[in-house]
Amino acid sequence: MKHAKLQFNVLALSLLTASTAFATDGYFSHGYGVRTQATGGAGIALPQDSLAAASNPAGIAWTGNRIDGGLSWFSPNRSTDITGNGVPGVNGSYDGNDKKNFWLPELGYTRQLNQDVSVGIAAYGNGGMNTDYGKNPYAGFGSKGSAGVNLEQLFISPSLAYKVNEQHAFGATINFAYQRFSAKGISAFSSASIDSKNLTDNGNDSATGWGLRLGWSGQITPELTLGATWASKVKTGNFEKYRGLFAQGGGFDIPGNYGIGLAYKVHPQLTLAADLQKIKYGDISAIANPLANLFAGNALGSEKGAGFGWRDITVVKLGAVYDYSKGLTLRVGYNHGGQPVPASETFFNILAPGVVQDHLTLGATYKVANGGELSFSFTHGFKKTVNGSNSIPASFGAGNANVSLSENIAGVAYGWKF
């Protein structure tokens, strides 16, 4: 236990200092915890470790006393092609990978206080987005230097779960969110901002906020478990250094989401799981407002200022867990999300091409001495390109921006039961 607590403290410190850009389902993570990542993100009815509260707080009623810590390596491949533009030197291909590697720590702790009540705390990267173009796609329009954005989000989530009986539990989580943002190389839009001094190249800015997640988990039959979860929008403070970029003076709240899940034990050694999740990107002005707002008289940073034009998405998560032996568990999964970026909105989404839709996942857990469990996962996000459709305004020379993204994620975690 002393060793476990030391590792927990070290991971807590690393969470505050590590890069946590993580764009899978839009810019949310496809799953929370290395084990859940390996099952395609399916975890609403399938708690597998002390990170379960990030998917459904009711799940910690079934995880027992444990500590888990892990680290994931995230490597996205971002690119843009601009075609049909009338400004000299703009057409061409642009590589957004000047920064290639990101590290995402995670940790969780759960404890059963008595037969009915369990508590826990989880810390994890909720999502993020990064682009870094050494060759600036907006240079032909007057921007200087390299271009890109960096958005990182960290959640720290204390949870409580209560068993109504041996089959059903309810849970609640308070989500404390810390997010950090920076943008550079977009001075071409200065004349379209309410505050050009707080539009670009101002380094990192941060904001914090609070939200709520509720959940239920129920064992309907010995084989079938169902779950449901809902998370509120997290209202955060504004990014004051970027009040001339984001709508409502730098507002960038974190979208709410909700989902349902099931887990079915088709064999004593094999469990299948599925989640259906809705992410409400369309409720956040800075994310959802279309670029057309700019040409309707709404400057960047204003109440109805232009944003990235993202839509709500629905995500399907499928996973399987096979207990190969007493010491080895195997996992596989698939994740498919809707497309948040419309073809008409690709010009601004050069900065935020969160367009990947399909992910294949796998992983395993090996039990070691003294109750320890070593887990790993691997996720491949298949390359997706959204080709623009009249996406570059005539005042910027018309034509289209075609944005692409693929990604690889590898994670390792260690858990202790006590």
Quick structural overview:
It is a multi-pass membrane protein. It is found in: Cell outer membrane. The protein is mainly beta.
Structural write-up:
The protein is mainly beta and 418 residues long. It has one domain: Porin (Beta Barrel). It is built from 4 helices and 16 strands. The chain has helices spanning 2-15, 34-38, 247-250, 285-288; strands at residues 66-83, 92-95, 102-112, 117-130, 148-163, 168-184, 205-219, 224-231, 235-236, 257-267, 270-279, 313-323, 328-337, 358-367, 372-386, 400-417. The chain has a 14-stranded antiparallel β-barrel with strand order 1-3-4-5-6-7-8-10-11-12-13-14-15-16. The longest helix is centred in the first third of the chain and has 14 residues, at 2-15. The radius of gyration is 22 Å and the shape is elongated. This is Outer membrane protein transport protein.
Low-pLDDT segments: 1-14
The CATH homologous superfamily is named Outer membrane protein transport protein (OMPP1/FadL/TodX)
Structural class: mainly beta
Average predicted confidence as pLDDT? 94
Number of domains: 1
Strand content: over 45%
| The CATH C-level class name | Mainly Beta
Largest sheet: 14 strands, antiparallel, barrel
Terminal-residue CA separation: 8 Å
Which architecture per CATH? Beta Barrel
Strands of the biggest beta sheet: in what spatial order? Answer: 1-3-4-5-6-7-8-10-11-12-13-14-15-16
* Helix content bin: under 10%
Number of distinct helices: 4
Rough shape?
A: elongated
- The strand count comes to 16
CATH topology: Porin
